[in-house]
Structure formats: structure tokens, C-alpha cells
Write a structure and sequence with these properties.
The complex is a heterodimer of chains A (about 250) and B (about 500). In chain A, about 45% of the residues are buried. In chain A, the strands form three sheets. In chain A, strands 6-9-10-3-11-12 form a six-stranded mixed sheet, with helices on both faces. A four-stranded antiparallel sheet of chain A has the order 2-1-4-5, with helices on one face. Chain A is about 40% helix and about 30% strand. Chain A starts with a strand and ends with a helix. In chain A, helix 5 runs parallel beside helix 6. Chain A is globular and about 55 Å long. Chain A is built from eight helices and twelve strands. The longest helix of chain A is centred in the C-terminal third of the chain and has 18 residues. The longest helix of chain B is centred in the N-terminal third of the chain and has 16 residues. Chain B has about 500 residues and is of the alpha/beta class. In chain B, strands 1, 2, 4, 6, 7, 9, 11, 12, 14, 16 and 18 form an eleven-stranded mixed sheet that branches. Chain B has an eight-stranded parallel sheet with strand order 3-5-8-10-13-15-17-19. Classes of the chains: A alpha/beta (about 250), B alpha/beta (about 500). At the A-B interface, helix 2, strand 7, helix 3 and strand 8 of A face helix 11 and helix 12 of B.
Chain lengths: ~250, ~500
């Protein structure tokens, strides 16, 4: 196995306000870790800091990803090294076809890893195969990235991008938000198809129901800027039953 | 075109005096600084022009003199006053001795742009004006001289005339006489008057009745005219039922030491004819502080004279320190169609005031305007457009869409649409948006593996897509790269 990601005593500020207050987390290769927690606990901050978004000050602590100091890498270098963030609110890019976007991204990553770029035909073949696996229609290849997509379509498109870019570390930031139960199932099945012993995942969610489909290996409760409890899937069930209050107090 | 006897007399008198005037210096291959009747005569003589054309130039010059304090001041552009007596109006093409010997002598910044655009070495030499490169340009680009020869003979088989306008004046004087200045009159504006007086050369195209020109015509292909002039004059006539697509310019930045450019382009489409005119303009934009850079004052206008005729302008404007340009269409024939598709970038300290005029005169005429303005750095960009429905333009329709995209905090985008409707059955629709490239968009794209510059290029190309797809295929691919290169350094 081996460690994919190790976060040690991470302190992060936004506009001088401390959001993460000594967060530590370790994820093995192939491990699917769920992070649950109340609003304002710092879940999305964690996702953003891992992906390299600007505007966050790390005041203390470290993040090691595949043996490298993640905090020293640019956003795009992290992406090329296999960090993928499925956005809570996927962003619209008018005029750019989804297939053009994904091909540009995939080839930028391949270039940066010193791999050969895919030509249009090779890319299309791969994209068709992935869309088929995810039971998605190819219509969206030509639609502009996320423009006019329904909530469910946006999340499925994120999973499609993820499957095309085949990351080592996938961070799903509230991928279940705004999805009805059918859409949720489809998205979760999509992610499950991508799971193998190489892909590590961080699933950020409010609710237990996504975890019914995703079956995480570990569950971590994030509250007040740090992981306050770690357990297996039963912890999520307990949380559902007792609420955050109950868990926090029991702690 | 009115050439009165008085003018002709004046010309003849002046012509007689040549040997006493400064014209005796004709062997020196350049005219001294400044503008005078002598300079106009010098240019005309250099082109070996007939008397009527010299008379026409002189007439324009005199009209220009009267307009001398009438430089258009309404555009949203700011620059030091131009001293028109402090400029050169004629210089013979440089001899090989004066040209750079190799690419080693060229500004590394220009070379790096060539490389980013993927321009082959041979072509780079031609663009940079390397000694001896001009003659091999055509075979360097196409690997074989025969391509150009085949091209020429194919066109002449169809009766298509495509040559420098200086040549057309001699070989097809009736056509030139009939149409020159018929769309853009000498006194149309200050810069058009100046161009009429001192234009150096340009392109002439005539497509005969019923002929569909089988290839895109490009200045790039035109032999004997590798150098784009400071005062270009282009005249394109599409006779009844004909079609032509014309490409102007080049994505590669061109070397030019003349700061002032004032071109005139006239298009005439007769019954059922169609002209598609595409431009990529990438003149030197000046440096970060706004030093140097071309001042580009262009008058482009097409007349849809015939019924069911169509004129379509597509432009990608990324260069020049100042762009003042409004490609327009006069919709005279019933059912005629005018289109304007534009992408313009103002980065660094560039200023662009550009747009179009659609003048609906005939019945059931239709126009479409799609303008995409991109401002970055300290760039300022204004869309200025006029849609006029004349009293006789029954059931005429216009649709305009003007979108501005801002990158960064220090740039500006402005939209100034004028609408003038004098016919109650006509319809005018105008939509406008202004947006910014958001940090969210940049982060999203970078998270997928693109660096900040690639991310901006991708977003901008998406923004401009509606216009880019109107360009001929190979031009569109180059233009896409160019948008990215032009915006380098605009984020970060």
C-alpha cells in the first residue's frame, strides 16, 4: 500500500481568520476516506487548499503528497501529478466545448509529465469509451463546459472529467449536493467504476446517503478546524443517528 | 468620380515643370519628409500612373488640406497630435544591403512570438524582412513554385483579376476608374482623404459574372507585393452572381517602421454577388509603457449595390497601439445582407475604437453584428456602431450583439451603439454584455492542468468562438493561437 497523502498539523487562515486549526489526516493508496462535518467546519477549505486555490494562508503544518511537498506546487502541477478536485459548484466556460476542454487539459497534463499528447482521434476513442462506461450520452461533448447543465449533469460531467484525467487523488467536494437520489446513485456508481488500488479519494459530504453507495474505507469527522474523530463506515451511521452535537459531546 | 478640367490643367502644368522641381531627384528612391503636391506627384510618377489618377490624387490632397483641422476627435482614443509634415510618405522597398542579414539581427521578442505561433524558419525570414528572403517566399511557404503558378493560371482561366492595384490601373483602367472612390469618397473622412492622395499600392480583385472564386484570395499569395504598405488601397468588385473570399493580413507580427497607417478598402457587390472579407491584424502594439506601436486608421466599406447581394466582414484585431476602424456595409440592393464579426484585443496600453456601420437603404435588407471586445492590462476598448434604417428600408432587420470581456482591474470596455430608424416596419435588436474572467474560472481550468496563460487563452477563445468560426479554417487555427499569445502576461 503506502501513503498517498499525509497532512500534519495544518493551520490555515483566510483573511486573518483561522479556519483549519491543526488538521491531521493520512490516506493510503487505494483508500477512500469520507470527511463529514457541520457547516463552517472547514471542509471546503481543505478541498481548496489541497487543489491549490489562492487566498489561503498556511501558517503552520505540512502536506505531503506522494512524497512531495504539495504546498510548494502550483495548481496545474498538482493536477498533472494526479490531484483532481470535483467541484461543489462546477464553473461555466462559455464557448468551450466539453471535449475541447478535456482534451486541452489532458494534453497539458501529459505534456507536463513528458508523455506523448493524444491526437483528436485517439482522444475521441477514449472519451467515447469513458462516456459509455459512465452511461452518459455523447451529446455533451459538444456542449460548452457546464453551460446550461442541470445540477445532475454538472456532477456527472465532473465524474467524466475525472475518468478522462485518471487521477491518483480525487477530492469530491459535496458532490452529492443538489442531486436527487437517482442522480446521486448514478454519480456514485461512476466513481465506483474508477476505484482501483491506485486511486485514493477524499469524499466530502454532509450526509450519510452518498456513503451508502460509495462505501468509504474510513470516516473522519471534521469540526472546528480539525479531525475530531476517525472510524470506519459505522461512524457515519452513528453520526446520522446522533447528529454532530452528539458525536462532539461524546468526544 | 469627378475630375474637372481645371484639375487636369493644373496637373499638366505641374507635370511640365517636373524637370525643374524636386522630382528630378527621382533616382533617390525616397521622398523627403512631409506632404506637398510635389510628394503626391512623386508617388504617382513612381507608380507610372496615368494623368487622370494623378489628378484624382491631387484633388484628394487639396480636399485633405482643407480638412486639416478636422481630424476626427470623437473616438475614445488618446495620443499625441500627429505632425503630418514629420512623416515619410514614400520610401522604395529596402535594398538587400539595408535589410537584416539573418534572424540573429532580429529582436528576440519578435522571434519568440514567431516560434509560439509555430511559423517555419523560412517564413520567419520573409516576415522579418531578411535580405534575399522575399524572392523565395512563395516556394518556402508552399514547398514548390508550381503551386503559385498553378494558382495564377487557374484564376486567369476563370477571368478573375487579382493583382496589385498599380497594375490594375494600367491594365484595367476602366474598372478602376469606375469604382475607385465610389464607395469611400475622397472626402469621406480625414484619413480616407489622406490615403486617396498618397496611397502606395494595394490589391485589386475583379470576379466576373457568375464566377465562384475557387480559393481564398490572400495578400499573402500575391506575388510582387510581399510588403504591406503604409497607405494601402484595396478595391474588390464582385460582378453579378459571383463569390469571393478574401483574406487580409497575417497572424505573425510584421516589422514596420512607419507608425502611421491609413488604409482604405472598398468592396462592391452587384446583384446576387457575395464578398467575404477576413482580416487578421497584428501590427506592433507598442511596449508596456505604450511606447512605439502602429497607429492604424482604416476606412473599410462595402456597398451591396445589387439585389440579394451579401458582404461579410470578419476581423481579428490584436495589434496596433491605436485602432480606429469601422468596416461598414451600405445595403442598397433589396434583400441584401451585411455582416460584421469582430474580435478585438486591447492589452498593455493599446486603445481600440472599432465597430461597424450598417446603412439599410433597400427593402428587406438584413444585417448582423457580433462584436467581442477583450481588454487586459491597461487596454481600452470601445465598440462604436451605427445601425441606420432609411425611410425606404421596408421590413429591414438588424441584430447586434456586443460583448466585452475584461481581464484584470486596470482595463476598460465601452459600448456605444447608435440606432437611427426612419422606417416603422424595420426592426433593430441590440444585446450587450460585459463580463470578467473570474478567479473561479481560472482556478477551475488550472485545476485541470492548464497554466494561467493557457487558461486565459482557452477562456478567451471560448468567448470569441462565434466570431472565430466565421474565419476560413486555417486562418481560424492561427487566430486562436494568436489570441493566446496576445494576452500573455495579462494574468499572474
Amino acid at each position: 500500500m503506502g501513503t498517498a497523502l499525509e497532512i500534519k498539523d495544518l493551520h490555515v487562515e483566510v483573511d486573518k481568520k483561522e479556519i483549519l486549526k491543526g488538521l491531521s489526516l493520512k490516506i493510503e493508496h487505494g483508500e477512500m476516506a469520507a470527511i463529514m462535518g457541520p457547516n463552517g467546519a472547514g471542509k471546503s477549505t481543505l478541498a481548496s487548499i489541497l487543489a491549490g486555490k489562492e487566498g489561503y494562508d498556511v501558517t503552520r503544518g505540512s502536506i505531503e503528497y506522494l512524497g512531495k511537498n504539495l504546498l510548494e506546487m502550483s495548481t496545474e502541477d498538482r493536477a498533472s501529478a494526479g490531484v483532481f478536485l470535483a467541484f461543489q459548484y462546477p464553473v461555466e466556460i462559455p464557448g468551450v466545448a466539453t471535449s475541447t476542454f478535456v482534451r486541452t487539459a489532458l494534453n497539458a497534463q501529459r505534456r507536463s509529465r513528458g508523455e506523448e499528447e493524444l491526437d483528436a482521434m485517439e482522444f475521441l476513442k477514449l472519451a467515447r469509451q469513458r462516456a459509455k462506461e459512465l452511461e452518459m450520452s455523447e451529446d455533451f461533448f459538444q456542449r460548452a463546459v457546464n453551460v446550461g447543465f442541470s445540477g445532475g449533469e454538472k456532477k456527472r460531467a465532473e465524474v467524466f472529467q475525472m475518468s478522462m484525467l485518471s487521477p491518483n487523488l480525487a477530492i469530491l467536494d459535496e458532490t452529492d449536493s443538489g442531486l436527487d437520489i437517482d442522480a446521486l446513485k448514478i454519480v456514485a456508481e461512476g466513481v465506483n467504476k474508477l476505484r482501483d488500488n491506485k486511486l485514493s479519494g477524499i469524499v466530502i459530504t454532509h450526509y450519510q446517503r452518498l456513503l451508502d453507495y460509495l462505501q468509504p474505507d474510513t470516516v473522519h469527522i471534521l469540526a472546528e478546524g480539525k479531525i475530531i474523530k476517525t472510524g470506519d463506515k459505522s461512524l457515519a451511521l452513528k453520526l446520522e443517528e446522533k447528529g454532530y452535537q452528539g458525536i462532539t459531546e461524546a468526544n | 468620380m469627378a475630375v474637372n478640367t481645371e484639375t487636369i490643367d493644373a496637373v499638366e502644368k505641374a507635370t511640365k515643370d517636373y524637370k525643374y522641381g524636386f522630382i528630378t531627384d527621382i533616382e533617390t528612391e525616397f521622398a523627403p519628409k512631409g506632404l506637398s503636391e510635389d510628394i503626391v506627384k512623386f508617388i504617382s510618377k513612381k507608380n507610372d500612373e496615368p494623368t487622370w489618377l494623378l489628378a484624382w490624387r491631387l484633388e484628394a490632397y487639396r480636399k485633405w488640406l482643407k480638412m486639416n483641422n478636422e481630424e476626427p476627435k470623437w473616438a475614445n482614443i488618446h495620443f499625441p497630435e500627429i505632425d503630418f509634415q514629420d512623416a515619410y510618405y514614400y520610401a522604395a522597398p529596402k535594398t538587400d544591403a539595408e535589410k537584416p542579414k539573418s534572424l540573429d539581427e532580429i529582436d528576440p521578442e519578435i522571434l519568440s512570438t514567431y516560434n509560439k505561433l509555430g511559423i517555419p524558419i523560412k517564413e520567419q525570414e520573409m516576415l522579418a524582412g531578411i535580405a534575399g528572403s522575399g524572392n523565395v517566399a512563395v516556394d518556402a511557404v508552399f514547398d514548390s513554385v508550381s503551386v503559385a503558378t498553378t494558382f495564377k493560371s487557374k484564376l486567369s482561366e476563370l477571368g478573375i483579376i487579382f493583382c496589385p492595384i498599380s497594375e490594375a490601373v494600367k491594365e484595367h483602367p476602366d474598372l478602376v476608374k469606375k469604382y475607385l472612390g465610389s464607395v469611400v469618397p475622397q472626402t469621406d473622412n480625414f484619413y480616407a482623404a489622406l490615403n486617396s492622395a498618397v496611397y502606395s499600392d494595394g490589391s485589386f480583385v475583379y470576379i466576373p459574372e457568375g464566377v465562384r472564386c475557387p480559393m481564398d484570395l490572400s495578400t499573402y499569395f500575391r506575388i510582387n507585393a510581399a510588403e504591406t504598405g503604409q497607405f494601402e488601397r484595396t478595391l474588390i468588385i464582385a460582378d453579378k452572381g459571383s463569390y469571393v473570399s478574401y483574406l487580409e493580413g497575417c497572424t505573425a507580427p510584421m516589422r514596420d517602421e512607419n507608425q502611421l497607417h491609413a488604409a482604405v478598402v472598398e468592396l462592391v457587390a452587384l446583384d446576387d454577388a457575395e464578398i467575404k472579407y477576413s482580416t487578421v491584424q497584428n501590427w506592433y502594439p507598442g511596449d508596456e509603457n505604450g511606447k512605439g506601436g502602429i497607429y492604424n486608421f482604416v476606412t473599410k466599406r462595402g456597398a451591396c449595390r445589387g439585389v440579394n447581394s451579401k458582404i461579410s466582414w470578419t476581423q481579428v484585431e490584436t495589434g496596433s497601439a491605436i485602432t480606429w476602424k469601422y468596416p461598414s456595409v451600405l445595403l442598397q440592393g433589396d434583400n441584401s445582407v451585411g455582416e460584421f464579426y469582430s474580435v478585438a484585443i486591447s492589452n498593455k496600453k493599446q486603445q481600440a475604437d472599432t465597430g461597424t456601420k450598417m446603412i439599410h437603404i433597400g427593402k428587406n435588407t438584413k444585417s448582423t453584428i457580433i462584436s467581442k471586445g477583450i481588454s487586459a492590462g491597461y487596454g481600452q476598448q470601445t465598440y462604436r456602431g451605427l445601425v441606420r434604417m432609411q425611410a425606404g428600408a421596408d421590413n429591414a432587420t438588424n441584430f447586434s450583439q456586443c460583448d466585452s470581456l475584461l481581464i484584470g482591474k486596470n482595463c476598460g470596455g465601452h459600448t456605444v451603439p447608435y440606432i437611427d430608424s426612419r422606417n416603422p416596419t424595420s426592426q433593430v435588436a441590440h444585446e450587450a454584455t460585459t463580463s470578467k474572467i473570474s478567479d473561479e474560472q481560472l482556478f477551475y481550468v488550472q485545476q485541470r492542468g492548464l497554466n494561467p496563460e493557457e487558461a486565459v487563452a482557452l477562456i478567451v477563445n471560448g468567448f470569441a468562438k462565434e466570431v472565430l468560426k466565421k474565419l476560413p479554417m486555417e486562418f481560424a487555427v492561427e487566430a486562436q493561437k494568436l489570441l493566446g499569445v496576445s494576452l500573455e502576461g495579462s494574468v499572474g
